[in-house]
Prior knowledge:
heterodimer, A: alpha/beta, Rossmann fold, two-stranded antiparallel ribbon, 8 helices, B: alpha/beta, Herpes Virus-1, six-stranded mixed beta sheet, three-stranded mixed beta sheet, 15 helices, 19 strands, globular
Amino acid sequence: MASVPSKLYADDVSLLVALVDVNPFFWTTASFSFSQFLSHVFAFLNSLLLLNQLNQVVVIATGYSSCDYIYDSSAATSQSVVDARMPALYSNLLQNLGEFLARDEKLGKEESRGKIASSLLSGSLSKALCYIQRLFRSGPHHPQPRILCLHGSPDGPEQYVAVMNAIFSAQRSMVPIDSCFVGAHNSAFLQQASYITGGVYVKPQHLDGLFQYLVTVFATDLHSRSFLQLPRPAGVDFRASCFCHKMTIDMGYICSVCLSIFCKHRKKCSTCGSVFGQAQSDDSTTSDRKRKAAET
Amino acid sequence: MNNGGKRRLRENGDRGDDDDDDMEEDGLEAWERTYADERSWEALQEDESGFLRPIDNKAVHHAQYRRRLQSLSATARIQKGLIRFLFVVVDLSKAAAEMDYRPSRMVMIAKQVEAFIREFFDQNPLSQIGLVTIKDGVAHSLTELGGSPESHIKALMGKLECSGDGSLQNALELVQGYLDQIPSYGHREVLILYSALSTCDPGDIMQTIQKCKKSKIRCSVIGLSAEMYICKHLCQETGGSYSIALDEAHLKDLILEHAPPPPAIAEFAVANLIKMGFPQRAAEGSISICSCHKEAKIGEGYICPRCKARVCELPTECRVCGLTLVSSPHLARSYHHLFPIAPFDEVPPSRQFEPHHRLQKTCFGCQQSLRNPSNKFSLYVECPKCKQPFCLDCDIYIHESLHNCPGCESFRPS
Lengths: 296, 414
């Protein structure tokens, strides 16, 4: 386990790893256009770099079939391209993003009918955490890292275990995961991520003002957050869904061997194949212990 | 200059003996003290041509980690006991006051047990720990089996005094009495941290060991002095592990080895369906009396789905109806034990001239360059499934903390 190093840098320097969702299947059906979204996000990243000379920004694109680094403000090559029309940040980022989208499309597969396909959130979260670990290794003087997910695609249930692993690893390293969700319905994964790691989850109501939401909620460094009134999580749903019907349940049965969740009592676990025995004595043993505790 | 310094120190010595002790360590001057702890000349070794070079810590560290991973990967597909009921037995006999571990064995054991408790609940959120101490030849139960780390740590740090002899049999009898009452699906374990070199038992310890074996309790011992036959016998009979700590860092490693779930022996725990509840958070601003503290609290709690009593934290057992209450992240914490990732393959510099490897320049996870500063290839690893390259540090982080391969997660399976 990586122990968290003492934060010897100045309090207000931050490293932001932005995970930008570029899933084409989501953006073609969104009410907000992708180019408008990008202009809000770029303006936000630029203002973050302006807030403090030592701030760093890393952008990872979350695509449909792949994820990759798009921009790193601390890399030497990012300052080289100078264009008369746009600042160096924009042109470099746009160029890399264009190349990434072309590669992603080549790897593309058939879309699942009926629903919007999910993008690879677990992949970009894992890469972001590896980058942050590299930052921790660079010595006692480093900015405070955090992750911002600019996401809109729905959750892919096949990524549940991987996303939860990433969330727990972020919690141990004390890296908050913030989310700004621009899709239609709330994302349970991102809500849980922000709740467990101590980040902020925001689903903006008016996407025309996205830049305003980004700058007022996510631009401040971690130390200053204790002085601000940030949006509080409302109703994070921690209920589990059963493995047999995928319904959310309040009470269920857990296999003691593989921890699979079932909504109804059954004789055999469908995941690990263990046969259940002595199921009735389970409840009586618990109530015996309860009575014992009450007596003492 | 130095003499002036010493005189000044002696004058200030009246302020408190602590200051004096800190300033002068066995009469060492200030410049000598910087070398007292770090002997930088020991971190050198000779290379082939007889020149001195510093020991490459990173490669050694990685090699140690690889060895550990190889031994663990053999157990990757073996069923693990995920719901554990573990008793930690701390020996507070006279031998625990020895100063060979700084400041004393007892204090260091307490510190390591605290770190262990936190790590244990992090890796096994559905399990419970209880603490037992041995003092004056009698075993006392310090805390009962419970799932909240803070209460155990507070109780442990509260009373740290040692006296008398140690008694293994009394500890085992006490623990066995408690562990007989737990449900049958739980795995029963005992971890004994033994500093004494003897044990004063009222009866026949062999019979107690047989009783433990029949109750399917897995006993492990970590010794701090020397190897004892009775501890070795106990561990062999019950299927636990016996190890002796060489120094503080080794002790920490040995204790933390018991945090991840051990391989489960199928007959030891019956597979059962456990009824559990997934409570919702209470609404903001709702006022109710919480069942754990028996006082009125506002908002911020969880409501038991069966009896609607309010509890303060999860995971816990509802005090009113006895239902185990967990949230789905608690179950998800254990899923990485069920779906482990394969160890990565090493790619030594000799193999890096192959066409596939020549193009790999940066680590897939952290974008660090995989080449040496002199632009020569250095050792890196690659995932056997997705063939992406990773640097050695990412390898350790991925396998020890993250449990996801970024390469496999970043490509959609066909």
